[in-house]
Amino acid sequence: MKDRLFREVLPRVSKPARYTGGEVNMIKKDWDLAGVKMVFAFPDVYEIGMSHIGGKILYGLINERSEHLLERCFAPWPDMETVMREEGIPLYALESFRPLSDFDVVGFSLQYELSITNVLNMLDLAGIPLHSRDRGQGHPLVVAGGPVVFNPEPFADFFDALLIGDGEELLPEFLDVVGQQRGLVREELLLKLAAIEGIYVPSLYEVSYNPDDTLQHIKPRMEGIGGRVRKRVVASLDKAYYPATPIVPYMNIVHDRAVLEVMRGCQRGCRFCQAGMVYRPLRERSLPTLQEQAAAQLCSTGYEEISLASLSTLDYSGVDPLVRGLVEEYGGQGIGVSLPSLRVDAFSIDLANEVQKVRKTTLTLAPEAGSQRMRDIINKNVTEEQLLEAAEAAFKSGWLALKLYFMVGLPFENDEDLDAILELVKKVRDIGQRFSRRPVEIRASVACFVPKAHTPFQWQAMNGPEELEAKRRYMTRYRQKNIKLSFHDNRTSFLEGVIARGDRRLGAVIREAWHNGCKFDGWSEYFDYERWREAFRACGIEPDFYTRRERAQDESFPWDIIDTGITRSYLWREARLSQEAALTSDCRIAGCTGCGICPRFTVDLDLKEAGQLSGERETFILDGEGAD
Amino acid sequence: MLLRCEYHVDSDLRFLSNLDMMHLMERALRRAKIPYALSEGFNPHLKLSLGTVLPVGLWGMREYFDLELKWPMEPAEFMSALNKALPPAMGLAQVRVIDSHSPALMKIINSAAYRFVIDASPALLEQIREDLLAAPQLLVQSRGKKKEQNKDLRAGIFKIQVIETEDFVIMELWVSTGEPVNVRYDELSELLSQHGIGPACIKDVYRSGNYVYENAAFNTPLEKVK
Fold it and tell me: Could you tell me if A205 and A221 are in contact, meaning their C-beta atoms sit under 8 angstroms apart?
C-alpha cells in the first residue's frame, strides 16, 4: 500500500507531504499487541488538523498512557480524493497505512459546523456506511467530539456516540469499555457506552416535534438511560496529561510551533462566545508545570517558536513572569515566544513588545463592536479609551499595522453601531498617523455574528444573508485611506447559523448536500451555497426556521440534552441584561455570577498565580436547576 | 567554525520541498543541541546553507550542506549527535571542517548525477546512451523559467552510464547544473521518453551525487574544498 502510494499516487497530487506520515515523534504502535484500535479523523486538511492542540493531547495520551492505539487521518484535498477514487485506494491512517475500516473506532474531531460534509466524504472514501443505522457488527464505531458536538443533534444520524467535554478522562474510559465489551452485539455495546458520563448515544433517544415545528422533546427510548448528558471536566490541568513529544510535521502547517495550553476556559462572559460558556470553569496550569512542558517540548521538537494558547492568554494569572521567563531562557537560541490573542489594553502591548523585540509587523486586537452600547450588549468589557490607549502604545513602540476584529449582525444592532465601527477604525488610524514615524495600515476584519447554542444569545434571531449583505454595502459605501475592511462570507455564516442551532431533521439536508457534491464548505473556493439551497428544498426544510426566528423563553432546544454545567436561568438572565446593555463582571474579580458550573459539577476556578484573587469563594446557583 | 556535511535523503522523504528540508534540518540541529551560530541583525537565523535544491519527488544519495558553529565541535561528535536527531530516512555520511572563507556550495556545485531505474533491457539502454551522446542536439521543452521554449540539453550532458542490477537497469546521467545549460531531471525524463522510455517503465528516479566538474574531472564538494 505504502509503496504503491509513493510510486504511483503521491507524485500526481499537490502537497504530497500531507499523505506520507512518518514525521518526527510519530508513534506507531504494534497493531497486534494494541488493545482497541482507534483512528483520530480530522475533517479538514493535514495542515489544519495537525495544528489542533486537542488532537496532539489525545494522540499522546492514548498512545503513551494506554494499551490502546490511536492513529491519524485527515481529509484528502480534492485532487488526492480524485486519484484515490480512480485508483480504488480507501482512506487510510498515516501510521500504519491501513484503511479506516480496519479500525475498531473512527473518531472525528468537530471544530467547525461546516466540516460535517467532509466527515461524510471521509466515511464514504473509507467505504464505511454514512448512517449509524446502516452500520453493523463488522464496521467501526463512528464517534465524534469537539466544541461543535455541544449541539449534537444535527449530526445524530451519522454518529454512534458523541463524546461531550474534555477528552482526557473520557476517551480512555470509552476505549476501555469498547475493549472490555468486545463481542457484544452493537446495540448492547451502545447501551454500555451510554452509561459512561459524557457519552451521548443519539439512537437511544426519540425526538418529537410540536405542530409549529419546534422541538417537543428528546426522550430516552428505555429506562436507565439518562435524561441529560453531562459534559466531562478535567478538574486540574496540572494533573492532566500534556504531550512532551508532539509530532513535528515535515510540511509547513498553520500553527507550526510548540504550544503550551496555559489554561482552559474563560470567565469573561462575552455573551456571544460559545467556548467561553461551554468550557467553564477556568482552570490554569501552574508556572512550574508550564516551564517544564516548554523545556520538554522544545527539546523533543526543535521548534524555533513556542506559542501560549488559551481562549484569552493575557488573562492567565502568571502571564507576565511566564512570558518574560521564556524569552530570557530561550531568546539566546533564536527561539521566539508568540501570543495568539491579545487583550485590548496597554499591558498587552507591553507584553507583545517583550516577545516581539524585532519585526513588529501586525498586531491583532478584538474590540468586537464599534459602539460602547454594543460592547456592553455583548458584555465585552472593553472601553474605547482602553482600545485607543492600546493603539497608541502599539504605534509608539513601532508596530506598523493593526488588525481589528469586529462583528456585525449582533442583537439590537442599528446603523449607528455600524457607523461606530468605521469611526473607531478611523480614530485608530489617526492615532497611528500621529504616533508612528511611517505610514500605518489598519485592517478591520468583520465577521457575521452567529448565535450559538448554550450562550445567552441562543434565543436570538440571526440576520439573513440579505441583511448582512446590506450591512456590508452600507459599511463599504465609501473608501478610506489606509483602512482595509474585509468581510466574512455571509452565506457561509448563515449556514453555520442553521447547523449551530439545528435539530435532528438537518441530518437529511447534510446528507443531501454531500450527495450534491458539497465538501470543504469552510473553504471559499469550494463552498457552494446554491447546492445547499437545493438540499434544503429537496428535504422540505426551511433554513430560516433555525436562524431568523426569535425563540420563546421556554422553548425546548435540541441542545438541552447536553448539560454544560451552565444553567439556563443564568443564560436567560444574561440575555435580559444584554437587552439593557448592562454588564456582568468577570467572576474572578467581582465574585460568583451564578453561572452554575462550580456548585453543580463540584469544581472550582483554578487560579495559580493570583494571590489577591484567592481565598474563600462563595458560589451560588440562580435557581433550582442544581439537582438534575 | 565551518562544517561541510554530506548526507542522504531516502525515499520516504522524497516529497519534501526545499523549505521543508531547511526546517527539518534546523529543528534537528536544535534537538541535537548543536552549538550553531546565529546571524546578526533583526531576525537572527541559523547560518545553514544547503547545496543545490533537491527537486520534490526525488530522493538523494549524496547531498551537502554547510553549517557555521558558535564554537568548535569534533566532526565525529557532531555527526553522531545530529544523526540521532534526524529522522531515520536521513543521515550524515561525512563531515569535514573547512576554511571559513571557502566559497559557498551553491557557487561551486555545477554538476549533478541523476539515476533512472528503468524496466528495459540493458542492450536497449546502451543503444540509447550511444544515440544521446552522438546526437548534435537534444531538444526538450524547457521546464524552468522559460516554459514553452525549446532547450538544447546536449552541451549539458557530460557523461552517461548504464548499470545493471538484479531487477532493473539504471541509467545514470551526469549533467550540468549551471553553465553552459542547467539540465533538470524532468527534462531528462522527457529526453528518455523521446527515446521510448516512458513514465511507465521508469521505476524510480533519484539524485546520486552533486559535483564540482572541472577539467573533465568530477569531484565532490568535500574533495574539492578551496
Answer: yes
Query: Cα(B127)–Cα(A257) distance, rounded to whole angstroms?
Result: 53
Mean pLDDT by 10 residues, chain A (628 residues): 90 95 97 98 98 97 98 98 97 98 98 97 98 96 98 98 97 98 94 97 97 96 92 96 98 95 94 96 96 97 94 92 93 86 82 73 89 96 93 90 95 96 96 90 96 98 96 92 94 97 98 97 95 98 97 97 97 97 91 92 83 58 54
Within an 8 Å CB–CB cutoff, is residue B30 touching chain A? Answer: yes
**Cβ A94 vs Cβ A19: under 8 Å:** yes
Which CATH number is B2-107 given? 3.30.70.580
Q: A298 and B17 in contact by Cβ < 8 A?
A: no
Helix axes of A346-355 and A384-396: crossing angle, nearest 10 degrees: 30
How deeply is A359 buried, as exposed, middle or buried, from its count of CB atoms within 10 A (0-12, 13-18, 19+)?
A: exposed
Structural domains of chain A sorted by starting position, each given as residue range(s) with its CATH number in brackets: 2-230 (3.40.50.2300)
CA distance A10 to chain B (A): 8
- CA B93 from chain centre, in angstroms, equals 14
Strand runs labelled E in A213-354: 215-220, 229-230, 258-261, 263-264, 283-284, 305-309, 336-338
How far, CA to CA in Å, does A272 sit from each of A204, A460, A555, A580, B40? Answer: 31, 10, 19, 16, 46
Give the span between the Cα atoms of A125 and B11, in whole angstroms.
Answer: 27
Please check whether residue A20 touches B, CB under 8 A. Answer: yes
Q: Which residues contact B214 (CB under 8 A, 6 or more apart)?
A: B224
Query: CB of A465 within 8 A of CB of A491?
Result: yes
Cα–Cα nearest to A73, from A36, A31, A119: A119
Beta bridge partners of A258: A306
Q: Scan for cell 428505555, then name that residue.
A: A222
Start and end residues for every CATH 3.30.70.580 domain found in chain B: 2-107
The ipTM of this complex is 0.89
Tell me the pTM: 0.94
A252 neighbourhood in chain B, CB within 8 Å: 19-20, 23
Which residues belong to CATH 3.30.70.3190 in chain B? 109-219
Instruction: Tell me which CATH code domain B109-219 carries.
Output: 3.30.70.3190
The chain B residue lying nearest A251, using CA atoms, is: B20
Q: Tell me, yes or no, if B14 comes closer than 8 A to chain A by beta carbon.
A: yes
